[in-house]
């Protein structure tokens, strides 16, 4: 999957400052709001929805990948923010690995957005399972390189 439609250059954080998942979610939701991705919703409502989803079941997947997400009425379109946490952030994944790549997905409550969500999950988890792509993603020098590695281009 080519993520260029969902992830703009300014939607990539190469050195996430947060040290726990709740601060990471807060930081990413505020970035989404500042970048105009949460138009009509706002950072606080977005954060509340993402936290609610995270409390119901951790979005930490295997091998250091986390894909927190929320579906909200009023969002204009699906958007994705990539963040790299080189040291890892404890995320409650089944394998116990801390998250090193966090991909916040926000989308309107539509069938198309849910289909996009499934495509993102499949693409990212497929890319992330390959150790060479995982290493390349974590070493990406800029946003374009990270998007290219994860998109497989």
Description:
Helix content is 41%, strand content 18%. By secondary structure, the chain is of the alpha/beta class. It has a single domain, classed as Mannitol-specific EII, Chain A (3-Layer(aba) Sandwich), CATH 3.40.930.10. Strands 1, 2, 3, 4 and 5 form a five-stranded mixed beta sheet that branches. Helix 4 packs antiparallel against helix 5. The protein is globular, with a radius of gyration of 14 Å. It starts with 11 loop residues before the first strand and ends with a helix.
Number of domains: 1
Instruction: Indicate the multimeric state.
Output: single chain
The assigned CATH architecture is 3-Layer(aba) Sandwich
**Whole-angstrom Rg:** 14 Å
Number of strands: 5
H/E element string? EHHEEEEHHH
Look at the helices and sheets and give the structural class. alpha/beta
Strand content: 15-25%
- What average pLDDT do the residues reach? 87
Major beta sheet summary: 5 strands, mixed
Uncertain segments:
none
**Topology-level CATH name:** Mannitol-specific EII, Chain A
Given the structure, what is the number of helices? Answer: 5
Superfamily at the CATH H level? Mannitol-specific EII, Chain A
**CATH class annotation:** Alpha Beta
What percent of the residues sit in helical stretches (DSSP H or I)?
40-55%
The separation of the N and C termini measures 9 Å
The rough form would be described as: globular
